[in-house]
Amino acid sequence: MYKTNHAQETGRALMESLSYGNPTYQDQVYKSLIDLMSCTLPKAQQLVLQTLRAVQLKQKTAHHSIVKPLLNMLRSPHIEVQTEAINLILDLRHYNVRGLLLSGLVTLLRPIRKEEEQHPKTQETERIEITGSLPEFLQQAAAAKPIRER
């Protein structure tokens, strides 16, 4: 486990230093980090978000492709991933993607259930809607945090 964490930290440091040391490749590193947000390991997600946050500070604008995967990070059950995603969202509120982020955060506050789309509302479905599920509550709580910080 130690070797894996060490390798991940080393990879994070390398990506960050590549963006600092090579201004001509800064955009490539930035876009590669956005692509890496789709990884599924929580520790890797956390490290990618930390690195992306550092690299984003050097960017004059934010690439619009960062919004969807970043909002997906708020669905993570891992608080470390959510915290890093929230920190990046708070940084991005000063960039050109502010409107997209706000719209996405509001959408996450009320998730759409597939059952809702397919079946008419009954007393039973209303009760299910009220009780919700833990992943939805985590998503809603994570989406509310950056909105509150505005």
TrEMBL record:
InterPro entries recorded: ARM-like, ARM-type_fold, DUF5578
One Pfam family, short name: DUF5578
Protein name: Uncharacterized protein
